[in-house]
Amino acid sequence: MKKHINIFLALFISAFMSACNSDDDGAVTDNPDYDQYGEVFNEVPEPEEAVIYQVNLRAFSEEGTIDAVTARLDHIKELGANVVYLMPIYPNGIENSAGGLGSPYAVRDYKEVSSEYGDLEDLRNLVEEAHNRDMAVVLDWVANHTAWDNEWTTEHPEYYETDENGNMIPPPGTNWSDVVQLDYDNPDLQNAMIDAMSYWVYNANIDGFRCDAADYVPEGFWTKAVSAIDEIKDQEMLMLAEGGEQRHLRSGFDLIFGFNFFETLKEVHNGAPATEIQMANAEEYQNVYDEDKRVVRYITNHDVNLSDGTPMELFGGTEGALATFVVAAYMKSVPMIYNGQEIAYDERLEFFTKTPIDWSQANNEVFEEYQRIIAFRKNSTAIEDGQYSGYSSNDVAAFTIQNDEETVFVLSNIRNQESNYLIPQQLQGEWEDAFEGNQMSLEDQITLQPYTYLILQK
Length: 458
Description:
The protein is built from 16 helices and 18 strands. The protein is of the alpha/beta class. It has an 8-stranded parallel β-sheet. It has a 6-stranded antiparallel β-sheet with strand order 11-12-13-18-15-16. Residues 1-19 form the signal peptide.
């Protein structure tokens, strides 16, 4: 199986870290003072096979607990997801709080489960039950900053950046006044952060991390951290950088985030040509050296759901959202679904307070369509690892994904109007409708109804 880094580099880093064990610089060792809890999980999906389900604990259930997520794992499994991604589970800061219950991204203690959500045993049970269903579990990790009342601010003030007067500061260039900026020039901080990440791999048997605000954290730290996490268990670990910079792939991350792709989807819905989508795809894969690396694509997440709107608000209702999701899920990407999206839940979800999803409002037809979209993706070797070619027009996002076994032709009308699409000559001929099973003959032109899509294969 693929590893995050090549064998030579892995051996080099391992030898380097082992040598550091006897140094006096406080370097993290390969064998922290933790015992491994749980069993090795060998079903972590390869990066290109991942389908990620994001859980906002404060919105996912009335209880707002980890146990409530465990109780709905079958729902996530039935959807087709194979990775459960939990937003931060740690106690959040009270000092300088951003309001409500406080931001989950203002971490007060890196090695505790917040009592708001449950305890370590609850997390262990969730991981075990997810593993029993062949789903991996990744935690959200906030490395760039801490809460103002994190114990490090008093015990290790040297871990933080300061102004000219020696005062700790929020992250420069942001309005994140509820958090304080860490100083990655300090090697002791780097080691403490890796130790805290390692704690959860050992003590809860998790399968990786989604690393928040990754673009703000130096590449050298991420290279060291990803390598250290990858070495703990004899299994694949899934590492997601919540950042758009390709340097994270050099650092060993499996996935980066398609920030620009999402913004482009919005622009196209508002009238920009659909060709902009394939241009955004090309930019995000420019100079990516490893064919196994992928960009996470989405039509909503916890940030944009709250700030920009639900998929139905942004993309023209349930039909427009589905037409847009097909493009995000199939265009050489790893799809991420935010809780509630799969049932067309059309209310914005807070994460500073509790805004529980009313699951009784589920649109079962939409859920079944998400299942169908995801199921085809998981059963198509071309979608997961084939070569991409773009054929979009002004109104239709169109592309092929091809490998030695099959060719998939995706056409999605992202307009709320009938659209005519001229079929490229090389794609004319006989195809099979992947969802309906019937044969189709493509000639020189096809007419697509508003917000409809075709998934063809041969």
